[in-house]
Amino acid sequence: VQRSLVLVKPDGVRRGLSGEILRRIEAKGYTLVAVELRDATPEILAAHYAEHEGKPFYAPLVEFMLSGPVLAVVVEGHRCIEGFRSLAGATDPTVAAPGTIRGDLGRDWGLAVQQNLVHGSDSPESAEREIGIWFADLGA
Ligand code: GTP
Ligand code: MG
């Protein structure tokens, strides 16, 4: 059975949307295998966002992810990687489709697409890697 690493980013936690986001994941039918509120670290984020290192938005993205606690979640279910990204909606919350997490709950607060409430793994390889980063004890 597939697993995905989902994060409620600091904007989502700060706005009190953790419960609503978990509700949507459970309502879709996926299982919550692990849920933990934690402070990211520069080391965790360097590993998590390695693919974006060197891009212009990398430093502000890391700073944003350190601005408050993150809810780290391991989601389980057949095709949950694809399924959660469908629930999350497009990266840019301004134009993410209504009905999605980003489309219903997100908007541009002046930082383009940076504050978009959630992260979801984009492939089985990413999910395994990211679960190892955020939940060293779980593996994938
Ligand atoms: P994640 O599920 O968070 O990985 O989102 P994604 O896969 O839709 O986006 P991507 O992996 O391309 O980018 C990771 C994150 O970096 C995004 O979710 C945004 O928070 C941020 N980001 C991406 N592109 C930009 C950009 O052009 N400007 C800014 N400020 N942030 C960006
Ligand atoms: Mg991504």
UniProtKB/TrEMBL annotation:
Main subcellular localisation: cytoplasm
Positions contributing to ATP binding: 9, 57, 85, 91, 102, 116
Cross-referenced SMART domains: NDK
Cofactor list: Mg(2+)
Record-listed E.C. numbers: 2.7.4.6
UniProt-listed PANTHER family: NUCLEOSIDE DIPHOSPHATE KINASE
Name this protein carries in UniProt: Nucleoside diphosphate kinase
GO CC term (a single one): cytoplasm
